[in-house]
Amino acid sequence: MAKRVYFAFHYQDVIDFRANVVRNHSFVGGVEKAGYFDASIWEKARNTNPLALKRLINSELEYTSVTVVLIGTGTWARPWVRYEILKSMKRGNKLLGVHINGIPGKDKQTKNLGPNPFDFLAYRYNNSGSSLTMLEHNNGAWSEYSEIDGSATYQLENSKPKQGGQAFKLSNDYPVYLWNRDNGYENFATWIE
Prior knowledge:
globular; Rossmann fold; alpha/beta; five-stranded antiparallel β-sheet; five-stranded parallel β-sheet; 24% strand; 7 helices; 10 strands
């Protein structure tokens, strides 16, 4: 059965065509046979206020099971990408990253890999393991991320937490691939399984 995939990316990577290569690449039999539907929202969200944009992201994530972060040069610092990642984590989506700077842009040039956004987001369990607090790294320090539902902390059911009180970067939990090196054209469907 085809998965509904949400793509998170910096809109500059759409302008430069790198994100489009992944989102629109050709599959034998089309994208549904390849195992996903694209649930991206950015074409319809560019001129939306923050509250409306959160509602739009939340509604598009609602029917997804996988979130793919397309990693370009500035993706790691984009506030809406951080929101999409942490909201996806909270709702239980499978998360993975795909570096896209090895894809030639509209200028026919490639770029050096951008920083992994999962290195700038983390979580911390309380000592009993009954709740998890989302964290983001800004200006050299970790701080609580409260943009989702007005709170950085949410209650967990049936959790088996890591050590309470310690922060764990998302990069320790979620895989990241390089589109070119890891042959995304052939392997994307297995990445999202």
